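Ticket #4471: structure output looks truncated?

Reporter: J.K.
Steps to reproduce: submitted the chain below (423 residues) through the standard prediction queue, then opened the result file.
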Amino acid sequence: MAPDKAPIQDPDELDRAVRTAVARAPVTDMHTHLYTPGFGDLLLWGIDELLTYHYLVAEVFRYAPMPYEDWWALPKRAQADHVWRHVFLEHSPVSEAARGVLTTLRELGLDPASRDLDAYRAYFADKSVTDHVDDVLRIANVTSLVMTNDPFDDLERPRWMDRGPDAAEDGRFHAALRIDPLLSQLPAAAPRLREWGYEAGDDLDEEDRAQIRRFLGEWIDRMNAVYVAASLAPTFDPFDEQSPGARVLRDCVLPVARDRNVPVALMIGVKKLINPGLRLAGDGVGKMDIRAVERLCAQYENNKFLVTLLARENQHELCVAARKYHNLMIFGCWWFLNIPELVDEITSLRTELLGLSFVPQHSDARVLDQVIYKWLHSRRLIADALARHYRNLHETGWRPTAAEVDRDVRVLFGDNFRRFVER
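Returned output as attached by the reporter:
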């Protein structure tokens, strides 16, 4: 019998098999904010972008606040210097976001102990962006990823108009159609639609809805989008008859997504700009009413929903909902949940209630280099959680093989998502 087909008798050997499988599993990173080099400056990379990531912007204001207008007037390099001084040199960089920068530097072959910011900058200055994309994905063992693509973004839109599905230029990168303006800011979005030839008003009569459906269908096709996505407030109610966004979701987004067999990804729980001065770093978190997700899954059983919730308090209810609806796939530890203690807790909770039928993580990376640390850190935490569950399984007398463990891990790190989106 081949070694990987033999039942594993020793629990310590099983532990090693789990950790080996997690460490080497290729990843499908199903939600990022990354782009290919062809999108120009939209692709963020390098040490200054790492240091000015909005998690660290919020952190540096805890140590060294200044007038917000002064901060935003600083050049990127000066902002990075400020973060480096106050978060990394004058305090130990123990937060997940700060530690992640150091993990990334180490994995790229740089020495975090040198504390030499100029040397780090020189390293990135010598890299070509295309080579760096290859290096980062290789180090992280990410074989494919999904971008976040917004047709309302004036920097991004022209590339899709010119190139269509070829805009990505890299088969590892796939598009997701982001539609936040349609659900949260329809009065502002409607004039843009009319400007582009979609005669849609915000009254949402039948013609308005037909034009929005045409817009959605054409952009799904133009991008060859893997899914349609929106980030929503915790108070968003898809069945609120007074909400234009709720009507757009029900009458436009869901029918188009159903007809094209494209899932709808709902990322719920962000309270936008509770501190506007911090801009992207100024968002907060709120608990949502899980009944909204349950009702969507029940009433739109021919739609598929990818859901992640931002509040820790929602995670148990979301797992229970996923047990009831096969058209619901829960994914990732999003944003404020992407810290070690909560990744471990949430992964264990999901495994207990859902077995292996979820997507444990996505990077949510905004800077290319973050893919390295977000997946390295997550792999270790997911391995810890899974190892406990396999040890519990072993105690029952069931003896998995190394091949079965490897199969299970690949299901979690890619197969579940690909099967759900049918790509």
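Triage note (M.O.): checked the attachment and the full token line is present. The radius of gyration is 22 Å.
Status: closed, working as intended.
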